[in-house]
Amino acid sequence: MDWGLKNRLALIIKPANNRAVMLAVDHGYFLGPTEQLENPKQTIRPLLQYCDSLMVTRGVLRTSVDANYPVPVVLRVSGGTSIIGEDLSNEEITVSVQDAIRVNASALAMSIFVGGKYEKQTIVNLGNLVNEAEQYGIPVLAVTAVGKDMVRDARYFSLACRIAAEQGAHIVKTYYCNDFEKVVNSCPVPVIIAGGKKIPEREALELTYNAIKAGAVGVDMGRNIWQSNSPVAMIKAVRAIVHGNADVNQAYDLFQKLEKESPKQSKPKSKPQEQNKPQNKQKKTKSKKTTKEKVI
């Protein structure tokens, strides 16, 4: 492995413990303004210091991420379809390696759709991307995208992850499932799990813990962090598992503690005050009107 490639991988998967916390904010490339990611800059800013790397599109990177902050970038380079389109698997490479170098990407990310209508196209895209990226010492992360009709079990994910590794992917991002050890053991490159759709915080922490215990090197989590009521508390709790070897109870206790300390907790205090105002008015106006209302 060339020095540059090895060095870039070390920015993403920390060599001290071979673990990684990646923050996924690339959802807009096919979902548009996702809930809580409508203003990317506002969502990303408070979380940057707690992630090891940021998975992002070049548009959001250029417009919404502070260039003075030294966060390693995993750049989404595939796309071409949207959530309202006919088939999400019909993706192409949309970003050149030269542009990735211009934005100083530490790795490139793209999806493959094993079993999808455009399976061959996406797998060939991966092979071609690896061919070009390796000329510049840039690692490639392959995402095993899952269509609506795919069975989400160890057999399928083992197949998809192995194919990605066989094409030369340096890291594979996939979904957690039962018997996840089989997926990890059959994939010769590091495996990172996707957070998936928003679930309760404790369940997301259980997902993280179980994946790490089964051999994943880390997480690439998005919605289960920035759609949480306390995103900073959540990413700290995830880090406690990935880098601090905390168990689920310890991580969730940390989340609850930090959530209580969060400034956001001061917002509900205004509600009782607003409710008291009309109640006071009612007290002042208690007279014949109130008796009439009772009769009615």
Question: What would your notes on this structure say?
Answer:
With 296 residues, this protein is an alpha/beta fold. It is built from 14 helices and ten strands. The chain has helices spanning 3-12, 28-31, 40-44, 58-64, 97-102, 119-134, 154-166, 180-185, 201-213, 223-226, 231-242, 248-261, 270-284, 288-295, and strands at 20-24, 53-56, 73-76, 78-79, 92-93, 107-112, 140-144, 171-174, 191-194, 218-221. Strands 1-2-3-6-7-8-9-10 form an eight-stranded parallel beta barrel, surrounded by six helices. Helix 9 packs parallel to helix 11, helix 9 runs antiparallel to helix 12 and helix 11 runs antiparallel to helix 12 (248-261). The longest helix is centred in the middle third of the chain and has 16 residues, at 119-134. Mean pLDDT is 89; it is low at 265-296.
